[in-house]
């Protein structure tokens, strides 16, 4: 395993993912992780990630032993600067930063750079520079601006780069990662998702023992895959709970119930519409909505656990992007984007031990696990749907009437877009109800009604996304049908923004 220590970079998850793509297992740890812990785990290499802070004004609880041991280290950007500072070098704010594509010259042969040309294009994002290396270090690469772009120790297997090999814009980035994993760390290609599944089943079986586990299931690919995995691990010690919070799409409850029953999952469906809508009354702030929903979910879980329990464990299909965006990645060094109901939205007193086997995985990895476990194709391909449901797609206050409007519009959008030959390339397609009314004319009468925004995006893992160029013909048909069939809506617009700068959901 390669351990990635996270200093809050936007790309930390990409680093881990690059190793996994090579068949080398990788996990992410907080800055205060103990060297002895990593050593006991048999870690073969350590990567120090980038990060938004500067080493000269950040106090860190990094375990010094990491630099006294013999496990190879690769410092990236902030990680390089940190290594330099810890080992006696010097870091200062540069006269200028280097952002985006930059050329570097390789000035010394290095195992890390094997297979690279003398000049390479790399991707950078920094303002601080290492101005003096630790004593036993030599420069291996220099940027076109004359800054140190690569360095390594002559005594220890410590390597560093100022650029980001993990992003695809660094042309030979994957080769650098490969050199580090195999030539420097001697890692083995022995990890794949099939093995991950086997190991998780074993691990969970041990962890749960004779206890029982309550699984929050939504019918989405993550939690449904987890349901099947847990079933294999602990059989009838598993009870799945599906909460109808009144924020679901048209026909969703019936569909989900049927699918889960067909998979043989022991399922409890809780009708909680009344209480969720009551709690959401008058609430307009998106973050407040998310927190209320997260809390109410847990209240429902607790009550059901009391009736049917005892349950020591609560399982959730949490993925890595939920964790990063909620800024809950153990370091607290990443910026908060939004509170995912199942992570940042949880109350402090949970009352359960959490089981989240997919916490470090991305959606495409979970989809492959679903394939391995033999889930039906319609689940594997199901579009993500956020736990807070339509509440984050009705901007402003959530009311029954608005829910009704949005459900109808969303259903029309889905019907039409499913007919499109490129439907399979879509990550998510949905309707959003805007909190404004505009003037229209319907049947010679003036109308003053709500606006629906359509959002259709493609994405690899939900971390970035692009709007899809849906043909005008289809968009036009959707707009006509919505304005004709949903009374209360007289205007439809299409969202042309990517993520970043927008997010996929509007709240
Ligand atoms: N209606 C619900 N009832 C019970 N648990 C839910 C519900 N909605 C969401 N959850 C829990 O929250 C987790 C996160 O939701 P999220 O929507 O990200 O994942 P998912 O529904 O499993 O998959 P997908 O992202 O494909 O929709 C789920 O895995 C599940 O554990
Ligand atoms: O379970 C969830 N609970 C949430 O609170 C939540 N918020 C966003 N999403 C989904 O996550 C992906 C990224 O969404 P954003 O670009 O809107 O942040 C998209 O796929 C969103 O649908 C959520 N899923
Ligand atoms: N991407 C990074 O790790 C940046 C490190 C540091 N904040 C700098 O500006 O140099
Ligand atoms: Mg979902």
Automatic annotation (TrEMBL):
Residues 191-382 form the GMPS ATP-PPase domain. It catalyses: XMP + L-glutamine + ATP + H2O = GMP + L-glutamate + AMP + diphosphate + 2 H(+). Its EC number is 6.3.5.2. ATP binds at residues 218-224. Transmembrane segments: none annotated. Homodimer. This is GMP synthase [glutamine-hydrolyzing]. It comes from Dictyoglomus thermophilum. The gene is guaA.
């Amino acid at each position: 395993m390669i351990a990635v220590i996270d200093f809050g970079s936007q790309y930390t998850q990409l680093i881990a993912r690059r190793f996994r793509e090579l068949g080398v297992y990788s996990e992410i740890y907080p800055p205060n992780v103990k060297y002895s812990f990593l050593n006991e785990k048999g870690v073969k290499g350590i990567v120090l990630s980038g990060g938004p802070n500067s080493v000269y004004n950040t106090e860190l609880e990094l375990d010094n032993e990491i630099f006294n041991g013999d496990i190879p280290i690769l410092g990236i950007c902030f990680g390089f600067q940190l290594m330099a500072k810890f080992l006696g070098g010097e870091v200062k704010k540069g006269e200028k930063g280097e952002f985006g594509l930059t050329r570097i010259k390789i000035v010394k042969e290095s195992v890390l750079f094997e297979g690279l040309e003398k000049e390479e294009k790399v991707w950078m994002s920094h303002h601080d520079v290492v101005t003096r290396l630790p004593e036993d270090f030599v420069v291996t690469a220099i940027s076109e601006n004359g800054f140190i772009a690569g360095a390594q120790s002559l005594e220890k297997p410590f390597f560093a780069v100022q650029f980001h090999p993990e992003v695809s814009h660094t042309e030979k980035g994957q080769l650098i990662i490969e050199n580090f994993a195999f030539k420097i760390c001697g890692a083995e290609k022995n990890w794949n998702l099939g093995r991950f599944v086997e190991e998780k089943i074993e691990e969970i079986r041990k962890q749960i023992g004779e206890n029982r586990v309550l699984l929050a299931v939504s019918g989405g690919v993550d939690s449904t895959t987890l349901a099947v995995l847990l079933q294999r691990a602990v059989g009838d010690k598993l009870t799945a709970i599906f909460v109808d919070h009144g924020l679901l799409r048209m026909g969703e409850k019936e569909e989900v119930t049927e699918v889960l029953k067909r998979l043989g999952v022991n399922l409890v469906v809780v009708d909680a519409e009344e209480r969720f809508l009551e709690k959401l009354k008058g609430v307009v702030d998106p973050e407040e909505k998310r927190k209320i929903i997260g809390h109410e979910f847990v209240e429902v879980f607790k009550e059901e656990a009391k009736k049917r329990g005892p349950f020591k464990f609560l399982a959730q299909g949490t993925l890595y992007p939920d964790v990063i965006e909620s800024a809950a990645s153990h370091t607290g060094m990443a910026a908060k984007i939004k509170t995912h109901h199942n992570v940042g939205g949880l109350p402090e007193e949970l009352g359960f031990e959490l089981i989240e086997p997919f916490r470090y995985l991305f959606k495409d990895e979970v989809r492959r696990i679903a394939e391995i476990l033999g889930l039906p194709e319609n689940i594997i391909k199901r579009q993500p749907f956020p736990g807070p449901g339509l509440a984050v797609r009705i901007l402003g206050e959530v009311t029954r009437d608005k829910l009704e409007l949005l459900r109808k519009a969303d259903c029309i959008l889905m019907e039409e877009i499913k007919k499109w030959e490129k439907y399979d390339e879509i990550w998510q397609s949905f309707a959003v109800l805007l909190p404004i009314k505009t003037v229209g004319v319907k049947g010679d009468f003036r109308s003053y009604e709500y606006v629906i925004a359509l959002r259709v995006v493609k994405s690899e893992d939900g971390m970035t996304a692009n709007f899809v160029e849906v043909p005008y013909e289809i968009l036009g048909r959707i707009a006509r049908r919505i304005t004709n069939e949903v009374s209360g809506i007289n205007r439809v617009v299409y969202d042309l923004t990517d993520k970043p700068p927008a997010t996929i959901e509007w709240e």
